[in-house]
Design a protein that fits this description.
Largest sheet of chain B: 6 strands, mixed
CATH superfamily of the domain at 8-69 and 191-263 in chain B: P-loop containing nucleotide triphosphate hydrolases
Distance between the termini of chain B: 48 Å
Structural class of chain A: mainly alpha
CATH architecture of chain A: Orthogonal Bundle
Number of strands of chain B: 11
Shape of chain B: globular
Oligomer: heterodimer
CATH topology of the domain at 8-69 and 191-263 in chain B: Rossmann fold
Radius of gyration of chain A: 19 Å
Order of helices and strands of chain B: EEEHEEHHHEHEEEHHEE
Distance between the termini of chain A: 60 Å
Number of strands of chain A: 0
CATH class of the domain at 8-69 and 191-263 in chain B: Alpha Beta
Shape of chain A: globular
Radius of gyration of chain B: 19 Å
Largest interface: A-B, 39 and 44 residues
Structural class of chain B: alpha/beta
Strand order of the largest sheet of chain B: 5-6-7-3-8-9
């Protein structure tokens, strides 16, 4: 029993905030990991990172207005996704530049809004909460809307699964087969913004890239087929999130009275999983077989 | 030949990009089972012509008439090493990659994919990641991807570039078989016509936006190509190969043969 208590500190399963955290954390981890596989394959990790950072402006607005951060993250992430796609840039270098500039502007806006938050509501916690997440502070009433957003994201992914895979493989192949590549690109960014919103609620706006990219990047190292890559990515995301929630809860007993941030544990676990996957796969940089 | 109607008819086709005329008044037609080389140097408009036939590029004037479905192998696809797709997954996407919804396991689809992998000689590496395959193996997978819907016309954009000599011969043989045995019309672009000489029924030779078209021996002649380029061009046949040589500086007019230094000549 004492060993069990060592891993699961007393009260872990009975705690309402832990239960909520596990539910919304799982939803965020799964959605992020699934769409993350496509984001990684499309080489749009930077766009994913930018969207999550920019969404922090939405989180700060929500704090100012006194509404749930979910709606702020969601609104701004979707708008930013639309803006990035409307810029319609095909050259990846140009796309990265514009993404970087939009990212800078978004974070600057966040700086202003957080400043106003602290001034008007004298809540220094806003910055930490928006940027680094506050999974244990999410009220149980947010479970339904967050599961709704997750369901929508998974549904959209299921709908465009094959054209999205084909477009990620090669846009020219896809357009020759009648796929409307730009529409698929826009839908990918929209699903991405839903995932980023969910992750921002869990581990914070600027850390949500970790759940988006890490599990997916680890999965594509190992899996040889798309279905398995998605399955593995979801599994890795879940392991990191559950492990992170558990360790954060346990950390109460390490430094009595003060828990360590969940986000620290989740992002650390994600990185460890990625390193382990690289070692497991042992894929050297160039392993093209000789002409056969 | 299954029918006597043309698979492809291109008439008086012109395509312009802002500030640049890419294709001027290009006309040709292809019959079932014909192999046609689309020859020209880099930038001569080969890719634009193929994309216009596919409907991915709008024409300024002229018309393209197709009789049947079209398969396409785009230029320079380098599969990402991290792509979690096996060769057979790529071929499968050729069948239903444009459909919405999740793919359900289907015996019919598996059989078609299996048959196509066999047809291009890709069974041995069907379960390997595409990113791990050699250039020649990747071309086979791409051809299977394009052919699985049984198109009447197969367009290939520089499928022989960056392949070693043996892989080039394998791919050319494969295209020839599809044309001869199944009546597929093959339009294949290349900057070097030599690997195609043995199988090519027709040629569309592009230079400076214009095209000389017809049977290979009618087009690849000093007078015809000189008129096309607007310069004096020498066409020399040696050891069963064709050398197209420009009078003047070697870099002034593209030489159709690359990668073989011995062929690059300058005539003062």
């Amino acid at each position: 029993m004492s060993f069990f208590n060592l891993i699961f500190a007393p009260g872990f399963f009975a705690s309402a905030p832990v239960q909520t955290a596990l539910v919304i954390g799982s939803a965020a981890a799964i959605v992020s990991a699934l769409i993350g596989v496509f984001t990684v394959l499309r080489g749009q990790s930077f766009a994913g990172h930018a969207l999550s950072d920019i969404s922090s402006a939405g989180g700060s607005v929500a704090f100012l207005l006194g509404i749930s951060a979910l709606w702020g993250f969601l609104g701004v992430a979707v708008l930013a996704a639309g803006a990035l796609e409307l810029a319609g840039l095909r050259r990846s270098k140009e796309r990265d530049l514009v993404t970087g500039i939009v990212l800078g502007a978004g974070l600057g806006l966040t700086a202003l809004l957080l400043h106003l938050d602290i001034g008007t509501r004298s809540s220094g916690g806003a910055a930490i909460s928006v940027m680094f997440g506050s999974i244990f502070a999410v009220p149980a009433s947010m479970i339904v809307p967050m599961l709704g957003v997750s369901g929508l994201a998974v549904l959209m992914m299921g709908l465009i699964y094959r054209p999205l895979l084909l477009t990620s493989l090669d846009p020219n192949l896809a357009s020759a087969q009648g796929v409307r590549v730009s529409s698929i690109g826009l839908l990918h960014l929209l699903i991405l913004s839903l995932a980023v919103t969910l992750s921002a609620m869990t581990i914070g706006a600027i850390l949500s890239t970790a759940l988006l990219i890490g599990p997916a990047a680890a999965a594509v190292q190992i899996a040889h087929r798309p279905g398995r890559a998605l399955l593995l990515a979801g599994l890795f995301g879940l392991i990191a999130t559950w492990g992170g929630v558990l360790l954060a809860y346990d950390s109460y007993t390490w430094t009595p009275g003060q828990a360590w941030p969940v986000s620290f544990f989740i992002t650390s676990l994600v990185s460890l999983i990625y390193v382990a996957a690289r070692l497991w796969a042992k894929r050297p940089v160039a392993r093209r077989t000789a002409e056969a | 030949m299954s029918t006597l109607t043309e698979t492809l008819n291109v008439s008086a086709l012109s395509v312009a990009f802002p500030g640049r005329q890419v294709l001027k008044d290009v006309s040709f037609s292809l019959m079932p089972g014909e192999v046609c080389g689309l020859i020209g140097s880099n930038g001569s408009g080969k890719t634009t012509l193929l994309r216009t036939i596919l409907g991915l590029q709008a024409a300024t004037s002229g018309a393209v008439h197709l009789n049947g479905a079209v398969g396409y192998v785009p230029q320079k696809i380098a599969f990402d090493m991290d792509m979690p797709l096996r060769a057979r997954d790529v071929v499968g996407l050729g069948l239903d990659g444009n459909r919405f919804g999740l793919p359900l396991p289907s015996l019919g689809k598996r059989r078609k994919v299996e048959a196509m992998l066999r047809a291009v000689g890709a069974e041995a590496f069907a379960d390997q990641r595409v990113g791990d395959l050699s250039g020649g193996q990747q071309q086979r997978v791409l051809i299977a991807h394009a052919m699985i819907r049984r198109p009447r016309l197969l367009l290939l954009d520089e499928p022989l570039a960056n392949l070693d000599v043996r892989a080039v011969a394998d791919i050319v043989g494969l295209l020839h078989r599809f044309a001869r045995d199944e009546g597929v019309t093959v339009l294949v672009s290349a900057h070097d016509m030599n690997p195609l000489l043995g199988v090519m029924d027709r040629i569309v030779y592009l230079a400076q936006g214009r095209a000389a078209t017809g049977k290979t021996e009618e087009v690849v002649r000093t007078e015809v190509l000189s008129r096309l380029y607007g310069h004096h061009i020498d066409v020399i046949r040696v050891h069963g190969r064709v050398l197209v040589i420009a009078a003047g500086a070697a870099d002034e007019i593209p030489i159709a043969i690359e990668k073989h230094p011995v062929h690059v000549c300058e005539i003062p």
